[in-house]
Amino acid sequence: MTATPIPRTMHMSIVGIRDMSVIYEPPHNRKPVQTYVLEYDQEVIKEAITKELERNGQVFYIYNRVDTIQKKADEISRLVPEATVSYAHGQMTGNQIEEIMQDFIEKKSNVLVCTTILESGIDIANANTIIVENADRMGLAALYQIRGRVGRSDRQAYAYITYRKDKMLSEEADKRLKAIKEFTEFGSGFKIAMRDLEIRGAGSMLGEIQSGHLEQVGYDTYCTLLDEVVKEMQGVEVEPEIDIQIDLNVTSYIPDEYIQDSAQKIEVYQNIALCKKEEDIQNVVDEIIDRFGNMPAELENLLDIARIKYLAKPFAISKIASKRTAVVFTFEQSKYEIDLQKLLKVYGNRIKFSPGIKTMITLDIGTTNERQILNDVTEFLKQLSK
Fold first, then answer.
1. Closest C-alpha among 250, 256, 262, 268 to residue 377
2. Sheet (strand 158-163) strand order
3. Please, which pLDDT band fits residue 216 given cuts at 50, 70 and 90?
4. Residue 318 in 3-state DSSP?
5. Confidence of residue 332 (pLDDT cuts 50, 70, 90)
6. Which domain range does residue 227 map to?
7. Neighbours of 193 (CB within 10 A)
8. What is the pTM of this model?
9. How confident is the model over 130-145, as pLDDT tens digits?
10. What is the count of structural domains for the chain?
């Protein structure tokens, strides 16, 4: 069982890896959260907050940009002067967050502006209006969890799921918002998970916090191995996927001072690992900047390496490694025919070709500067695709 609608959990249940129970009966006197999906409008926000305060209730306001969250709290204070507004985000210390939450529980504040730290475990019966800004940037499971923070008493609860005015929503974002609006009745977690599974697939299981044999390899890897075994039993020849090794001697990680919370850090690493096209990279970049502010160079390098990895995949490259002021690309020769003449026209004597069981091309970068290395490697891979 899971209270959170996660596509991979749903998929594991469907294929029989895990058992599943569905509970439709709500706690006594609970009412479904009345959900509105709409363009951001200050007048609507003002009215929603005012109505909740008039019945002596409290409001959650989800705003996922750490660098401007204080300005947003000030803006709401000006918009609704009678409100007592506080704010919290994941870059605060545990003690700071605990103090702010305790004040909210004790009704010393009645509007809490916060990031998606609200997703997990907050249960305040007096908070029955939730407003989400830029909801199109959030996953469906996250939206479902966030909405579940209200409606935890016998009062009618309201959720205002908003997106920026006049913004052209992506197809996936549009589907997510329609789903959160459509599935409001009790027991919707099952339907939400099914819809999320349709929208973005089964996902993958990554990170050190997992345990057990399946989790040690990750669910995607498990399914890949299972698929290979089935095909082999059917007599189908299986082409092993090339695992690209990248060793460019560049500093690439998420600094502790940038993201202090380990769970959030793992989530960002997972999102980067799942990038398979430029749109994925841009979505991750937008989300990171919105949540944590401008990125440090180390994280930019990590994203560039993710980009290099998916750019290299179509060309049967098994390794990209630095060698002093050059970079060596190792190809599985039998799987990709290299147009050497085209590369010589572009790079001249900057490249050296070494045929063999595995073809190697050495590209002279002329420097050990990290930014130059990443830029030149990316450009080389783009030249291969032309």
1. 250
2. 34-39, 158-163, 127-132, 58-62, 111-114, 85-88
3. very low
4. strand
5. confident
6. 204-241
7. 25
8. 0.49
9. 999 988 887 777 777 7
10. 3
Residue 129, pLDDT score? 93
Tokens 């026209």, located at residue: 345
Q: 278: exposed, middle or buried (C-beta count within 10 Å: 0-12, 13-18, 19+)?
A: exposed
Measured distance CA(247)–CA(305) in Å, rounded: 10
pLDDT band at 221 (very low <50, low <70, confident <90, very high): very low
Distances, alpha carbon 148 to alpha carbons 62, 86, 141, 335, in Å: 13, 21, 11, 50
Distance CA 60, CA 6 (A): 23
The strand order across the sheet containing 326-332 reads: 245-247, 317-323, 326-332, 358-364, 351-354
Percent of the chain's residues with pLDDT above 90: 31
Q: Are residues 359 and 310 in the same domain?
A: yes
Instruction: Tell me: do 51 and 133 sit in the same domain.
Output: yes
> 261 and 309, same structural domain?
yes
Q: Which residue has the tokens 């380990």?
A: 262
Residue 304 has pLDDT above 60, yes or no: yes
N-term to C-term CA, the chain: 49
Nearest to residue 77, comparing CAs of 54, 109, 107? 109
CATH number at residue 13: 3.40.50.300
Cβ atoms of 358 and 333 closer than 8 Å: yes
User: Looking at the structure, do residues 182 and 125 belong to the same domain, yes or no?
Assistant: yes
pLDDT computed for residue 186 by the predictor: 46
Helices (H), the chain: 7-14, 42-54, 69-79, 94-105, 140-147, 171-182, 188-200, 213-217, 219-233, 262-273, 278-292, 297-312, 340-347, 370-385
- One-letter identity of residue 353: F
Query: Does residue 16 sit in the same domain as residue 152?
Result: yes
Per the CB < 8 A criterion, the answer to whether 22 and 1 are in contact is no
The answer to whether residues 351 and 376 touch, using CB atoms and an 8 Å cutoff, is no
CA-based nearest residue to 272, from 242, 310, 240, 244: 310
What confidence score (pLDDT) does residue 220 get?
47
Would you say residue 1 lies in a domain? no
